[in-house]
Amino acid sequence: MTLNPLVHLDLFGSLMVLIVGFGYARPVPVNPNNYRVRNADFYIASAGPLMNLLLGIIGAFLYGILAQNSITILAGVPLLFLLKLFIIINFNLFLFNLIPLGPLDGNSVFPHFLPPNLRIRYQHWNFRYGSYALIGLVLLSILLPNFSAFSWITSISMSMTNGLL
């Protein structure tokens, strides 16, 4: 384990950000044998999305302070624009990472809300097909201009942002 973020960079995932605006990093290795708490995988998987939610809320708080303060006059509108973009991106990441497919955090969060018999069936299905389903949705959203599998994320995050500002 290391706090060095460069260890988690994936070359292809990083290039994807530059090419299509969507990428990924290597997953953080977690050893389930080290779990001391029941449902630890739920807490671990929830940490990333909850951090995005917290960063969005903190950004909205700072936006509110700066928008009502004379600092805005000195810094100009670009600072508020960047802060609003920061908020929207974090809310988008919060919602996107909760999608219960493939390697996303929702893959480990969602099963905890299912009855045991459905949980096992879902986990088996997602282990086999979840990543392919996610890649398929991303590709369809890129290739088909009228198909947007993730537009609801932007819609909800904009509502969250406007509700806080």
Automatic annotation (TrEMBL):
<dbReference type="GO" id="GO:0005886">
    <property type="term" value="C:plasma membrane"/>
</dbReference>
<keyword id="KW-0378">Hydrolase</keyword>
<keyword id="KW-0472">Membrane</keyword>
<feature type="transmembrane region" description="Helical">
    <location>
        <begin position="44"/>
        <end position="66"/>
    </location>
</feature>
<dbReference type="GO" id="GO:0046872">
    <property type="term" value="F:metal ion binding"/>
</dbReference>
<dbReference type="InterPro" id="IPR044537">
    <property type="entry name" value="Rip2-like"/>
</dbReference>
<keyword id="KW-0645">Protease</keyword>
<comment type="similarity">
    <text>Belongs to the peptidase M50B family.</text>
</comment>
<keyword id="KW-1133">Transmembrane helix</keyword>
<feature type="transmembrane region" description="Helical">
    <location>
        <begin position="7"/>
        <end position="24"/>
    </location>
</feature>
<protein>
    <recommendedName>
        <fullName>Peptidase M50 domain-containing protein</fullName>
    </recommendedName>
</protein>
<feature type="transmembrane region" description="Helical">
    <location>
        <begin position="73"/>
        <end position="99"/>
    </location>
</feature>
<keyword id="KW-0482">Metalloprotease</keyword>
<feature type="transmembrane region" description="Helical">
    <location>
        <begin position="132"/>
        <end position="153"/>
    </location>
</feature>
<dbReference type="GO" id="GO:0006508">
    <property type="term" value="P:proteolysis"/>
</dbReference>
<keyword id="KW-0812">Transmembrane</keyword>
<dbReference type="GO" id="GO:0008237">
    <property type="term" value="F:metallopeptidase activity"/>
</dbReference>
<keyword id="KW-0862">Zinc</keyword>
<keyword id="KW-0479">Metal-binding</keyword>
<dbReference type="InterPro" id="IPR052348">
    <property type="entry name" value="Metallopeptidase_M50B"/>
</dbReference>
<keyword id="KW-1003">Cell membrane</keyword>
